[in-house]
Amino acid sequence: QDGIAGDPTDPWTRFELAKLYLKEGQKQEAIGLVNGLLSSQPNDPNTIYATAMLYSQMDDWPNALKFIEKVNPRLRTPSIAEFQRAAWMEVQLIYAVEFARKGSTTQSMSVFNRAEIIAGQDPALLGKLSRAYIDAGMTDKGVNLLRQKVTLSAGKSTDLLIEYGNVLLKTNQSVESSNILRQLQLKSLSAEQKQNFDQLVYSYSVKQAESLVQLGKPREAIRILVDLQNQRPTDSGTLIALSNAYAANGQGPKAIELLQNLEEKYPNNPDIIYSLVLANIQSRNFPKALAHL
Fold first, then answer.
1. pTM: predicted TM-score of the whole model, two decimal places
2. By C-alpha distance, which of 40, 42, 80, 44 is closest to 64?
3. CA angle, residues 10, 15, 19, in degrees to nearest 5
4. Which of 59, 62, 113, 218 could form a disulfide with 248 if both were Cys (CB 3.0 to 4.6 A apart)?
5. Which tens digits make up the pLDDT trace of 74-132?
6. Which of 55, 30, 54, 24 is nearest to 234 (CA)?
């Protein structure tokens, strides 16, 4: 806020503050912060870029693409061009997954095939593509896409290994993902790669805790998840996992309270709603469970 007061036309200071608002679940405040500047300088490439990036933080890729494409192609920096490409890919993959879920296999594969051409050898785009295949119900195709790329690179591409590790976690292949983590620990990482690696380690820890719940050891899971929550107090995935562990440990009211607080910040989130239904069922509060369906 002090930074904005010192330079109210700097879009990146506003973007950083907007991200903090998002972490607190204050979506409208975040949008208002960047929209206020955008209305006064609607043609500034950096202001448009910051606005598009904010929408990407909310996983609102159609709006992210809509805004980034307002930047004149002649004024696009390499980072803006890269973001536009990523946003285009995200939107195409949304369509592909929707087509697949509706049973329109031919249309879905047509979009996927175009997206695969655009992805080329880009690890980040290949990671998005792989995860979309999985979301569309084509798990083997999604995993094999990255497995083949990793094999061809002989494990030399650090970025590709990180993407592969994320996909293995998504498909609950903990043993293979732990092998990827060990390989990455031996590599020299850039600042961005270190950040992505740390996120992968964190996600792996959450998955391990969720496995403990499945094994009937919710107390052990709670200890791990409380420690992870202390590291990232606003991470919704961790809080959902913690609430599920509480519910499995017979602490239904505590689980429900945690989930209700989350629901206030992230309304209509399907993972939160699903966990609320389960927690209420485990607490034998069937009317409330039905109310969330």
1. 0.85
2. 80
3. 155
4. 218
5. 999 999 999 999 999 999 999 999 999 999 999 999 999 999 999 999 999 999 999 99
6. 24
